[in-house]
Amino acid sequence: MEEKELTQNAETVDQVTGMGMNTDENAAGTVILNDPLSEEGELEKLADELQEQKDKYLRLMAEFDNFRRRTAKERLELIQTAGKDVIVSLLDVLDDCDRAEKQIQANADIAVQKEGIQLVFNKLRSTLQNKGVKAMESIHTDFDVEKHEAITEIPSPTEELKGKVLDEVVKGYYLNDKLIRFAKVVVGK
User: Fold this and answer.
1) In the chain, what are the domain boundaries?
2) How do the pLDDT tens digits run along the chain, 189 residues long?
3) How far apart are the C-alpha atoms of 185 and 170, rounded to whole Å?
């Protein structure tokens, strides 16, 4: 068996030597192993690729930084002018308030003054409704901690009003069906 292994090892050495590879550690290598031109070419090629990747990276970072600055500026502008639409629509109501104030000073008829003020209130409510603001109906509904804030509890006049909202101190509001202010209520116990 040893003879067979030696023969196989000798064949392997012959194959390697036949490929032009030098297996003697003391002898100089062959042309394939010591080709300085191909090493320099590959090294130069890798250096060029590395520089190209660095350039791409720097450009990408600069582009991202510009994007970040631009979006931060746009966000700041949006925050500063977010309520512009609502404010512009409320300016009409403010003009009506000014006109009502002049009428109150010029006219002593209480009935006319009440009617004018009621028109201003109705215009304000309709303007807010057009912007998506809706008042919450709370009185005689079950107390819900998700929508109501209990100010106090009082004894309920009837058994069926226990745990229900008896009075509304401050109205709650929705904006586009999202709760924006809790209703402050009095609950029956």
Assistant:
1) 34-82, 83-131, 132-189
2) 555 555 555 555 455 444 445 555 665 555 455 555 567 888 999 999 999 999 999 999 999 999 999 999 999 888 877 777 788 888 888 888 888 888 888 877 888 888 888 888 999 989 888 888 899 998 888 888 899 999 989 988 888 888 888 999 999 999 888 998 999 999 988
3) 7
User: What is the CATH topology of the domain spanning 132-189?
Assistant: Nucleotide Exchange Factor Grpe; Chain A, domain 2 (2.30.22)
